[in-house]
């Protein structure tokens, strides 16, 4: 178990000295679902950059070139376990393997998800089920499996969900009622699980990315009126880089956030917030 506030609470030290003030993941074992590429891999790299002992990617797909390149930067510290997050038994097995190998688990980033943007009337039933199965049901299974491990190990663990700015409001250009609803469910689940699991010392929070430059958003800046859209929305005139999300996750996973639970951190460069012009429309 990593040195942390939980190891000194109850000592004779003043209360102000019983809690961590540095944002670090030194000694921690972290699991990130969907971390073979994209946002998940960026979060995994951020964790390792901030001292995590080892980070496990729990992903359905086989690791690709991106993961292999990252693994070379941290030999033996970035590992992959295959599991289907929509099947709770496979997630539980993955976490059991992590504990068996590393003798601990301190944080779970519930990141695996998928997107599908189209008009509500055009969605098939199968497409709707696919979105909810991974974005909402899978997220719940992963959080619950992690919580059970934390409780068994008597660890004050942290769960961090990846939600979305789409959980707050729709985007006129890329509508997706099922996607937004599934991510809104994730944010609601964050608050409810935080309330339920506080008695175990488990903190539950979420991060809501805005437009991030990944393989799924390559087409966004290619739109002919992209520059006009940026002026309309205001904020930082670009997509976020994956690495720019990591700080929010690292903070929420760290012992410096020991009293931070049931919150969502939007990382969106202001893009996606309701503007004055939009209110007038």
TrEMBL record:
InterPro entries in UniProt: NAD(P)-bd_dom_sf (IPR036291), Sc_DH/Rdtase_CS (IPR020904), SDR_fam (IPR002347)
Transmembrane domains' residue ranges: none
Coiled coil: none
Pfam families: adh_short_C2 (PF13561)
Keyword annotations of the record: NADP, Oxidoreductase
Keyword Coiled coil: no
UniProt family annotation: Belongs to the short-chain dehydrogenases/reductases (SDR) family.
Name of this chain's protein: Uncharacterized protein
Protein's organism: Bionectria ochroleuca (Gliocladium roseum)
């Amino acid at each position: 178990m990593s040195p942390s506030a939980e190891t000194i609470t109850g000592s004779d030290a003043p209360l102000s000295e019983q809690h961590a003030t540095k944002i670090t993941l030194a000694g921690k074992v972290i699991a990130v679902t969907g971390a073979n590429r994209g946002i998940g891999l960026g979060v995994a790299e951020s964790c390792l950059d901030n001292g995590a002992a080892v980070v496990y990617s729990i992903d359905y797909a086989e690791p690709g070139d991106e993961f292999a390149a990252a693994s070379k930067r941290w030999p033996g510290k970035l590992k992959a376990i295959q599991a289907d997050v929509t099947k709770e038994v496979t997630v539980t097995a993955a976490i059991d393997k992590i504990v068996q190998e590393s003798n601990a688990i301190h944080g779970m980033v519930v990141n695996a998800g998928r997107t599908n943007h189209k008009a509500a009337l055009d969605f098939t039933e199968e497409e709707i089920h696919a979105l909810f199965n991974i974005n909402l049901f899978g997220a719940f299974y992963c959080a619950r499996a992690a919580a059970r491990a934390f409780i068994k190990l008597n660890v004050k663990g942290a769960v961090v969900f990846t939600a979305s700015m789409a959980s707050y409001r729709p985007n006129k250009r890329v509508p997706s009622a099922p996607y937004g609803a599934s991510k809104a469910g994730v944010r609601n689940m964050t608050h409810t699980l935080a309330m339920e699991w506080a008695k175990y010392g488990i903190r539950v929070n979420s991060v809501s990315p805005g437009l991030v430059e990944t393989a799924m958003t390559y087409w966004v800046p290619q739109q002919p009126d992209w520059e006009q859209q940026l002026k309309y929305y205001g904020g930082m005139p670009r997509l976020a880089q994956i690495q720019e999300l990591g700080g929010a996750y690292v903070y929420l996973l760290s012992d410096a956030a020991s009293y931070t639970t049931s919150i969502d951190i939007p990382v969106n460069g202001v893009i996606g917030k309701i503007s004055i012009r939009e209110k007038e429309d």
